[in-house]
Design goal:
The protein has two domains: about 160 residues, Beta Barrel (Lyase, Ornithine Decarboxylase, Chain A, domain 1), CATH 2.40.37; about 240 residues, Alanine racemase (TIM Barrel, Alpha-Beta Barrel). Helix content is about 30%, strand content about 25%. The strands form three sheets. Strands 4, 13, 14, 15, 16, 17, 18, 19 and 20 form a nine-stranded mixed sheet that branches. The protein has an eight-stranded parallel barrel with strand order 5-6-7-8-9-10-11-12, surrounded by four helices. α6 links the parallel β8 and β9. The protein binds pyridoxal-5'-phosphate. Pyridoxal-5'-phosphate binds next to α10.
Amino acid sequence: MQNLNAPVTRDHDSYRLHGVDLLSLCAQYGSPLYVYDLDHIVSCYKGLVQAFAWPKLRIHYAMKANYNLDILKALRAEGARIDAVSPAEVFVVLKAGFPKEDILYTANNMTDEEMSLVHNLGVLLNIDSLSGLKRYGEAFPGSNVCLRFNSDVVAGETEKVQTGGEKTKFGIRLEDVEPALDIAARYRLTIVGLHEHTGSGIAEAEQFYQGMKNLLSIGTKERFPALRFVDFGGGFKVPYRPEDKRIDYAVFGKKAVEIFADFCRAYGRELELYFEPGRYLVAEGGIFLMQVNTIKDNRGRLIAGTNSGFGHLIRPMLYDAYHHILNISNPNGASRTYDICGNICETGDLFASDRSIPEIREGDFLAVLNAGAYCHSMASVYNLRPLPVEIVIRNGVASLSRRKATHEAFAEEIVASYGG
Ligand SMILES: Cc1ncc(COP(=O)(O)O)c(C=O)c1O
């Protein structure tokens, strides 16, 4: 357990997040419930800033990982910038107090309307296809732009989140750099940034460095005389299983900065260095709490049925992702093996299968660890179950962050959206 979810601690029979007893949160706010430790999230941010010791460093938080407003504001206060991927994400962070200059817009398959909307807000666009670049040039000749290239490295925790190589829809091919430059010249576009994002949950540092080197190999001063920054995306891995190794980002950062420093020397100017972590900043600082209401023995297969489901946390179903689960009501119970399921009408609605865990009794509360990234932000209201409440903890004090709609109010909202 040592490797997992640093902020969750056990004090005798009580599990705590930053000192706050998890069972007391369930009693106070009900469940299902997301809880985020803002201090832990901020310390992850500060750790990355320290690891990448470059004078012109910018960390653009990939808010797709978790758009919770309190998280955004806490990161903003520390100097984080934003990687946004939809117009609504841009509007949310503008309202959260981020200036437009601190946002890089990296949507995929952008419509002309979306390009105009975001460009007219004064946000820099990161364009990832020749066709998109042409349409952008036609609409906004003489503008600044960032170009996203395909790093040609295949890495990431599952195929679904690998964004380099031949199977991906992302980025301009490195070998298409000349056609990209032709389009930019035709429309007098100034290329101020180069970008690549290889994948999410990159296991080997070498894969990350290779992605960096591949992008930098095309970034000559002759081709791109007006560069302000190079952005190497996100993808920093965190351990999910007890046996997963934790990457030492202090070592990693040193090497990445060396690669960039060599590039800047050859380029002739000290450029800004951008990264776009999502998961690394928020995964471990978040947990999800749910309650078991039904234990069933299906011919020897023990099934623990909870009051949540894949609508609230889809990663196990979507990616076969592993999340460590604690029985916080019965931490000393004898281990038994369960399928831990949700309340959604599909057999695949599982948080874990064949999972050994202290005996689960009806009424017990379970804590799903590493639930801060790509959990609430990927949630849906399938089966018309409203999104769970979100709580934040700061300085050891818990407070309500996002309220839950009652079932009836939620139903009324739906009916009203259809015009009654
Ligand atoms: C362009 C881009 N940047 C950053 C990220 C964040 O990745 P991670 O959460 O693995 O750091 C993603 C994730 O999909 C992405 O597509």
